[in-house]
Structure formats: C-alpha cells, structure tokens
Amino acid sequence: MGTAETSTERGRGGMSEHRRRRVRLEISREAARLFWQQGVDATSGDQIAAAVGLSTRTIWRHFRSKESCAEPIVTQSVAWEMSTLRSWPPHLSLEDHFAAEADRFGRESTALEQADTALGIRMIRLADSEPALRTAWLMACDQVEHEMAEIIATRLDGKPDDLDVRLHAAAASAALRVINEYIGAALLDGVDPREFSDAASLIANAVRRATGGAVGDPVEGADETGTDA
Amino acid sequence: MGTAETSTERGRGGMSEHRRRRVRLEISREAARLFWQQGVDATSGDQIAAAVGLSTRTIWRHFRSKESCAEPIVTQSVAWEMSTLRSWPPHLSLEDHFAAEADRFGRESTALEQADTALGIRMIRLADSEPALRTAWLMACDQVEHEMAEIIATRLDGKPDDLDVRLHAAAASAALRVINEYIGAALLDGVDPREFSDAASLIANAVRRATGGAVGDPVEGADETGTDA
DNA sequence: AATTAGGTGTCATTTAGTGACAGCGGCGCG
DNA sequence: CGCGCCGCTGTCACTAAATGACACCTAATT
After folding, report:
1. Lowest CB count within 10 Å: A29, B31, B131, B190, which one?
2. Tens digit of pLDDT for each residue in B3-15?
3. Which residues span the membrane (chains A, B) (predicted)?
C-alpha cells in the first residue's frame, strides 16, 4: 500500500490518514468543550474554528455538520474498550481481561486521555437533551458496531457481514452503549467511581448475554501460547 | 387527558397531536420518494414543500432538519413489529405470535401501508450510502428502543429505566434493526419474499438470544385467559 | 530545482433553518 | 349569532450552516 513509511510524518499522501485523525480529534475537543459550556445551538462553526485555530472552511472540510464534530471525542471515549476487545486473548474470560486492562488504563493513561474521556462522557450526557448530539452519539456507536463485527468475526472465525456476526455485534455494542450511558450519567451525578469497580463483569455479562453466550468466555481449542496476536 | 374525544377530529387542541402525526407522515412520504429518486443532497426543502403542497416554512416547523423528514416513514415501516410486540399475549411464544400477525398483515394491510413499508425499506437501504439518512434511521431505531423498553418493562414487571430492562431493550431492538436491514436489502436485491417465510422465527430467535432468553418464550405463571390487553 | 499532491485560507454563493408577524379557520362563549 | 381565542399556516426578512472555486503553502519524490 504505502510507498514508504520512513520516520517523521506522512509519506507522500500515505501517512495523512493518521494526521487527519489527529486534526479531527483536535477539532472535536474544542467543539465538545464549547458544546458543553454553551450548548450546541449557541455554538457556531466560526467559534469552533476560532477555538481550534483553523479557518471555518477547514472545519467543514473535516466534518459534514456541526454536530458530527462531536463524534471523534465520543468515539475516543469508548476507544479503549474497543482496543481492549481487540487485544483480548482467546484463553481469557472477558471480565478478567477487561479488569486487567481497566486497571492498566487507570495507571498508564495520560492526563489528556482522561480529559478526553471526561469530555466524551459529557457529550453522551448532553445527547439526552440535545437531539443533534444524540445523532452524533448514535453514529459513533454505529462505528463501534462495525469494529465489533470485525472483532467478533475473527474471534468466531466468520465473516463480518454474516447475519449471525452482525446480530452479535449489534447486540453487544448496543449493550456497551447502554452501559456507557448508565455509568457516564452516574459519574456526572457525582457517584463515586469506585462504585463501578465491577464494571468489567458488568460489561462482560452484558456482552455475554447479548450474544447468547457466543462472546465472553474463553475460546475452547485455544492453548495458552496464543494463536492470534 | 383530552377534554373531549367527541367524534370527528380535534377537540380544541386536544386531538391535534394525532393530526400532527398525519401531517408529518404525509411530508415524510414525499420526502422519502424524492430522496430515493434523486438522492438526499439533490433534494431541497423547497422541493419537499412543493411536493406535499405546503410552504417551506411549515416543513421546518414539523422537522428540525431535512434528513429527519425520513424518520416517520421509516418508523412506520417497523411500526407493525412494535404493535405486534405490544399485543403479544403472555402465553404465546414470540414466533407463533409474530407469524400470526405477519400473516394478518399480509392479508389485511392497505395498499397505502404496503407502499409506505416499501418506501421505508428503500430509506433503510439508502442509509447505507447516505450518512445523512443513516442518522435518521438510527434515530428511528432509538425511538423503537424506547418503546421496546416499555414493552419489556411491563412484560418482565420492571421499570423502563432499570439497567437490565434497558440492556434487553437495546440488544433486542439492535437485533431487530439488523434483521430489518438484512431482509430489506435482500428484498430490494430481488430475493423472493417467500424466502423469508421464516422471518418470524428469525426475529424471535434473535430477540431471545439478544435478551439472554428473558424475552421470547411464553411467560410462566400466566394463564390463557390473558391478564394484559 | 522542479514536480506533485494534500491541506489550508479566502471569497462568493447556495441552501438549511429561525424569528416575527399576519391571515385563516374552527371552537367556545356571551 | 357575533366575538375573541387559539393553533396552524403563509410570507418575508434574516442568520448561519455548508459548498465551490481558486490560490498558496508545505513537504516528500525525483
């Protein structure tokens, strides 16, 4: 694919997807901050542009609408759950893996990452009252569902567009979405985070139940040496 | 609630919600037709207004955005599934009930209703390629999820905002969504509708699996006389 | 150095969406 | 019956979201 992945930044148009993601996230941060501070309707494209230091035209080149500016930061807030699913070794139960990763996240995550997560939670909360943001949240979850389909497909040795895989992915990501809404709302209401120390098993059980047990338990026939990356 | 539900139409502001739904559906029909014929981007608010015979201003009074004009017709296309779920007697299995209702729908439905359903299917298909319509479809499914939460809450004797009820509703409606996308796409690809004579069991099994078996089977402790309407 | 391509800025333009006000039509009430 | 109230719609002016066209800059390729 790429002609060269030398070292610094983009290699003649190849690396630019990575760069694009960063710019979009940057915009999304400022947009989310403004949305939270003043509401979506009270925030203009010009304001977002000024806040991030770009021209308004460039904002519209990166996002097709004002509301969709919120998507990356919201996707980001569930990104670790996704990457956790991706790195899920076959011989572990979902709760064990999630618990370990959650712990690692608590220790290793950047302040920036945590701020992003907080911002994402606020956006999800805001989606309750602002229909425009609800669309953004649902679109982000739609993305998650597609990723989930790939993950489940590889884990169950099927194809991402098999009906069963799609059903599993849809149900699992819907469950994940509800839990995110639930925990996020609670956290914003001032509930002690340690209240959710069982989040791992909560998620695991929800996913397991939503997929009829197809996803959640250690995969048989997989030894500890790890067949997959 | 209503001051008077005499006979004809609206009773001094009370009946107007019903009327509002009809107008919205009317607009949605024309919008969907135009979206399908020329694409979403190529369709302007003015065109929709002209097609339905209202002023553009009135369109924006009924819908907050162009894309959301598609929501009613799309919601309509899953409306019978919802009403079927609502009328689901406790002592029946989901497949039996669905099969019976589907049969009844095939016999009793109006030509207009069938046209609406076809239009809805087209919108769902269009949502694959048009992000703007995908948001509308997802928002419609979000509505379905809320209805589903109420249905499940009553059936399981819980409250609609219980975490478990929400999880069940989310997973079940997500499954329903995927099946709708799947069957709709197949039908538009020219697959013989009789190919999906097992749709009832397909849906029932998907819902049952998505809810961990909590929804789908006859409810115990409910005799055939029927406790609920 | 010349080339190429993607990202960005600027300006003009279109179109989605809102505010304000006036007219119509039904309905309750004197 | 006539009067005023209320909700729905149309008209017009306006704001803001979004796109097109074009030029410039930067950086990697050759």
Report:
1. B190
2. 333 334 444 545 6
3. none
Task: Give the HSE-up count for residue B48: Cα atoms under 13 Å, Cβ half-sphere.
Answer: 33
**CA A170 vs CA A76, A142, A161: distances in Å:** 19, 9, 12
Neighboring chain B residues of A166 at a CB cutoff of 8 Å: 178, 182
pLDDT over threshold 50, residue A3: no
A72 has a pLDDT exceeding 90: yes
Shared fold status for B17-68 and B70-211: no
The pLDDT value given to residue B227: 43
Domain A70-211 annotated CATH 1.10.357.10: yes
Q: Is A64 left (phi over 0), alpha (psi -120 to 50) or beta?
A: alpha
Distance CA A61 to C1' D9 in A = 37
Q: How confident is the model over A40-67, as a mean pLDDT?
A: 96
Q: Does A180 touch chain B (CB under 8 A)?
A: no
Spans of all domains in chain B: 17-68, 70-211
Residue A70 distance to chain B (closest CA, Å) = 14
* Nearest CB to A142 within list B64, B134, B210: B134
CATH 1.10.10.60: does it fit domain A17-68?
yes
Estimate in Å the CA B57 to C1' D13 gap, whole number. 13
Q: Is the pLDDT at B222 greater than 90, yes or no?
A: no
Q: Inform me whether the C-beta atom of residue A201 falls under 8 Å from chain B C-beta atoms.
A: no
Pick from A89, A110, A205: nearest CA to A154: A89
- Give per-residue pLDDT as tens, B83-138: 898 898 888 888 899 888 888 888 888 898 889 999 999 999 999 999 999 999 99
Instruction: Give the per-residue pLDDT at B127.
Output: 96
Q: What is the pLDDT of residues A158-182, one digit of tens each?
A: 999 999 999 999 999 999 999 999 9
DSSP state letters, B137-174: HHHHHHHHHHHHHHHHHHHHTS-TTSHHHHHHHHHHHH
Q: At a CB cut-off of 8 Å and minimum separation 6, what does A131 contact?
A: B64, B139
The answer to whether the CB atoms of A167 and B173 lie below 8 A apart is no
| Contacts A212 to B, Cβ<8 Å | 209-210, 212
CB A209 to CB B177 under 8 A?
no
Tell me which chain A residues have a C-beta less than 8 angstroms from the C-beta of B206.
Answer: 167
Tell how many helices (H) and how many strands (E) occur in chain B.
10, 0
Are the C-beta atoms of residues B51 and B34 closer than 8 Å to each other? yes
Note the strand C nucleotides within 7 A of protein beta carbons: 5-12, 15-20, 27-28
A55 touches strand C (CB under 7 A): yes
